[in-house]
Design brief:
It is a single chain. By secondary structure, the chain is mainly alpha-helical. It has one domain: Winged helix-like DNA-binding domain superfamily/Winged helix DNA-binding domain (Arc Repressor Mutant, subunit A, Orthogonal Bundle), CATH 1.10.10. It is 71% helix and 10% strand. A two-stranded antiparallel ribbon has the order 1-2. α1 packs across α2 and α2 crosses α4. The radius of gyration is 19 Å and the shape is globular.
Length: 152
């Protein structure tokens, strides 16, 4: 195989991967919308993303949250207020910076999230039921490398 053939084969493989990612993103958006609505009827997917980012970080400042989500601090602030009003998150004083607050999930918020995620968790477990455990771990490792911009 010539280097041009190898390059064309790589280009075709990357295009096929891009198409599969497109399908995955479409399905994932549907899951996110459904989960958001189960956490709180009418919740928008963007608010769900803010909420799950706070949950994943356990405790985060508004500035760090906006930076992590690459979003406008004002928009994140409005979403955080909505999440607080729903009882999903709470603010506590930041012990390292008295001018700032830490955002954390409430016990109620964690409970709602677990209930919202339950239907999809079994779907993914069922979809991967026949996959060898090593393949699942390898896919996770490769996806992490891709999102981190690293070589696997």
């Amino acid at each position: 195989m010539t280097s041009e053939d190898t390059r064309e084969a790589r280009t075709q493989a990357v295009r096929a991967l891009e198409a599969e990612f497109g399908e995955l993103i479409t399905r994932f958006r549907k899951v996110i919308s459904e989960n958001a609505d189960r956490v709180s009827p009418g919740m928008l997917p963007g608010a769900y993303k803010v909420f799950t980012t706070i949950v994943r970080r356990e405790s985060v400042t508004l500035s760090a949250l906006a930076e992590a989500l690459m979003a406008d601090k004002g928009q994140i602030s409005r979403t955080v207020r909505e999440l607080e009003q729903l009882g999903l998150i709470e603010r506590t004083p930041d012990p390292e910076d008295g001018r700032s607050s830490l955002l954390s999930p409430t016990a109620f918020g964690l409970e709602r999230l677990a209930q919202a995620r339950a239907p999809q968790e079994s779907t993914l477990l069922n979809a991967l039921e026949e996959w060898p455990l090593e393949d699942i771990r390898n896919l996770s490792r490769l996806l992490h490398a891709l999102t981190a911009g690293q070589s696997p």
